[in-house]
Specification:
16 helices, Rossmann fold, Histidinol dehydrogenase (chains A, B), six-stranded parallel beta sheet, homodimer, globular, about 425 residues, alpha/beta, five-stranded parallel beta sheet
């Protein structure tokens, strides 16, 4: 890891640069698969499943009996763990329900705001080495709590045409309504346009490689919303001498094992701690099965020594980390002043992996500095707010003249006329 | 207006089609202006201001004295109207504040969600024939209430290098922090990259022509968020014989005068009402200064006769109107079952123009069917939610094993290790 001592604010931009991917070269292939899926639906999806996933499927749909079988093959211990996580995630997301906001802004002018579920949502879960069943909990639980009618899941099949058992188990207990064996670009295209098997959805959620990321971006051009723009995962730890160096090192490594483009940053006022953590990382990394990945992403990473908490905070807000661990004496200062972070983990006994799996918070979070303007996935991500107004005769008399004047000043005579007609009828 | 009687569900797609614009041909010019602004900042912005706005400016900044002068030139009557609207909009948006959501998901596992303001936001207000000062109220008021630190406004100068007085007045009273005489693509590019004069912002709000729309889309590729994808404005009215045909006609026309691509739709179970409204539209349209625009957009529009309320509701939810007026006896049925609409106007005395200006609800709403998945602008549009968790020694003992099991099942050993180390230390 690079060590940087007392950087000047003008150097921050360079120091805080994220490892970026160039995606323009894959836009063309994504676009062409979209066009094919739009035209020929399932046939094309099956063609690409054969090509990319090396399996030929008769049906894209996961059957009831496949789900049952999968469920039976998950160990009881893992089921219990998943159920505990589910219960915590449910509690935290259910608490996010907001009630109707109603205000009589003037006598006879009643306004209110209500949230209603997005009726059709699509969840994408990647395949590959790590079966991310935890992401199903993070997406399907709030979708179900929000009241989404159709919760569609797509995940690529393995070479035997199957989806990981834990994924199917999690999908079933969380209320996913339909599961399809479809991955990658063709899955996103399928949920964007709808096919003979796959329903068209209104919003697509979930992680994926850069093909999936570009496909989700493209989907937004076809009237589909997405959870948020994606980027490589990242963690920033602020720690001082009250932090346990071994714990901090284990957190930095747990982020680093995600992928070679993950980024981890330590910001500290203590040279001694930085030294100790550097040593701990070297010790712990040896034991990791994914040490090659971790070592590469540690190469993208930085140990930054700063002069005080205030400077640390300014630098952290400039970065806007996805995950932010705070392990310092002056904890409240950091909690009050953090403006830009996805999820915050406080103290020596709150590892990032707690939030990744089971504390109850969501792990689908803004990366790439997007914490400056995007929320992580939460209950509201599956709803939209609508406003209502009901104006009485008294009410229109109270605000009518103001509307007429403003409409006239904007040169919109018909807007004025809609009020004038009503006011006249009440004279 | 086209009349359509008892359409079959399979015809709805065709009937509910929106007038669309093709924008791919202007993407290239937008991209090239972005690249120029990124490289040369103010110099390029001034060049394009000369080219597009036909005025050469020494400074892009609106000065204190210009604001003061503008404020003096707005009539007291209009000021009063604006202040009334401001007060209502403030009341309704202030009521949308949510408090911290805190849950102890398990003993020792505290999770909470807090919303924090987006620190830097940019508002775009078009110039042209209608000076949309009302949109400043709709954007700057919630931005200020949310606590955004920098609220930047860009609006194109007229040929004398000035911005409409009502726009400057509204900006001043609503807490805009800086105002720039910059319009179109160059304004969006300026707020995306930052220039010598214009600050870089994190999220851009506001309407605009198709150049501005494409520029906002492009901004999202440079880590800037936008309020929502834009499309032509639209209104759907559901009415029966309890509705006043003259009022309904005036509402349809107030929407139609916005632009030639606006769309208005009437859905009714009453042939008699449809007849009466058709006649009223013909009468009222004659008197409108913007009758040429209104007549063209009325050409895109439809009067649809349906067999009952249930079918009306299904069709309306399929369309997802930006503005939805409900003027029917069976009002509660419509209010309970509407799933997809931006803002809803109820009864004979609630014209759409009330919400456009002064009732208190926001007029920046999802068009083009986006009401299916997007909220209109509201207080939360200027904030993002962050989550926090603090786990005690007792807490990590309670959820540690579940995390270890799940991390292992996902093949993420370092995630497991971060917990194992902590559990070991507590033995």
């Amino acid at each position: 890891m690079q060590r940087i001592n007392y950087p000047q604010p003008k150097e921050w931009d360079e120091i805080l640069k994220r490892p970026t991917q160039t995606v323009s070269d894959i836009e063309a292939i994504v676009y062409s698969i979209f066009k094919e899926v739009e035209a020929d639906g399932d046939t094309v999806i099956k063609k690409y499943t054969t090509q990319f996933d090396k399996v030929t499927l008769d049906s894209l749909v996961v059957s009831e009996s496949e789900i049952e079988q999968a469920s039976n093959s998950v160990s009881d211990a893992l089921k219990q763990a998943i159920n505990l996580a589910k219960s915590n995630i449910e509690k935290f997301h259910a608490a996010q329900k907001t009630s109707k906001v109603a205000v009589e802004t003037l006598p006879g002018v009643e306004c209110w705001q209500e949230k209603r579920p997005i009726q059709k949502v699509g969840l994408y879960i990647p395949g590959g080495t790590a079966p991310l069943f935890s992401t199903i909990l993070m997406l399907a639980i709030p979708a179900k709590l929000a009241g989404c009618k159709e919760i569609v899941l797509c995940s690529p099949p393995d070479k035997n045409g199957e989806i990981n058992s834990a994924i199917l188990y999690a999908a079933q207990i969380c209320g996913v309504t339909q599961i399809f064996k479809v991955g990658g670009i063709q899955a996103i295209a399928g949920m964007t346009f709808g096919t003979e098997s796959i329903p068209k959805v209104y919003k697509i959620f979930g992680p994926g490689n850069q093909y999936v990321t570009v496909a989700k971006q493209l989907a937004t051009k076809y009237n589909v919303a997405i959870d948020m723009p994606a980027g490589p995962s990242e963690l920033l730890v602020a720690a001082d001498d009250t932090a346990n160096p071994a714990f901090v090192a284990s957190d930095l490594l747990s982020q680093a094992e995600h992928g070679v483009d993950s980024q981890v940053i330590l910001v500290s006022t203590s040279e001694k701690l930085i030294e100790a953590i550097g040593t701990e990382i070297e010790n712990q990394i040896q034991q990791l099965p994914r040490k090659d990945i971790a070592r590469k992403s540690i190469g993208n990473s930085r140990l930054i020594l700063v002069k005080d908490d205030k400077e640390a905070m300014a630098l952290i807000n400039e970065y806007g980390p996805e995950h932010f661990i705070v392990c310092v004496e002056n904890e409240n200062f950091y909690l009050e002043n953090i403006q830009n972070a996805g999820s915050v983990f406080i103290g020596n006994y709150t590892p990032e992996s707690a939030g990744d799996y089971a504390s109850g918070t969501n792990h689908t979070l803004p990366t790439n500095g997007y914490a400056k303007q995007y929320s992580g996935v939460n209950l509201d991500s599956f709803m939209k707010s609508m406003t209502f107004q009901k104006i009485s005769e008294k009410g229109i008399k109270g605000i009518g003249t103001a509307i007429e004047l403003m409409a006239e000043a904007e040169g919109l005579q018909a807007h004025k006329n809609a009020v004038t007609l009503r006011l006249k009828s009440l004279k």
